[in-house]
Prior knowledge:
The chain is an all-alpha fold. It contains three helices and no strands. The protein has a single domain, classed as Helix Hairpins. Helix 2 runs antiparallel to helix 3. The radius of gyration is 17 Å and the shape is elongated. The mean pLDDT is 89.
Amino acid sequence: MDAVGLTPVLALSAGLFTLGVLGVLTRKNALIVFMCIELMLNAVNLSFVAFARHHGNLDGHVFAVFVMAVAAAEAAVGLALVILLFRNRVTVQLDDLDRLRG
């Protein structure tokens, strides 16, 4: 089996991270913003694993598991906040959520 080099994997990771940043900066829906943040975390995981494989150790895999745990917690808290905002304001558009008072 032919192994893929480090450069194409890092290029893919950078592309995914850039796509996530663009999504966070341009989208107005809170759910889409959370999905873009998850995309950015997965891009970082990909680069951790690529560097770990390139150097021949397991440190990057361990960091990737920790990042996945943090991402799962962030998704749970973020989804709970979105549901709470939808119950109170009946919208998840970030432009409509410019005030903190009810």
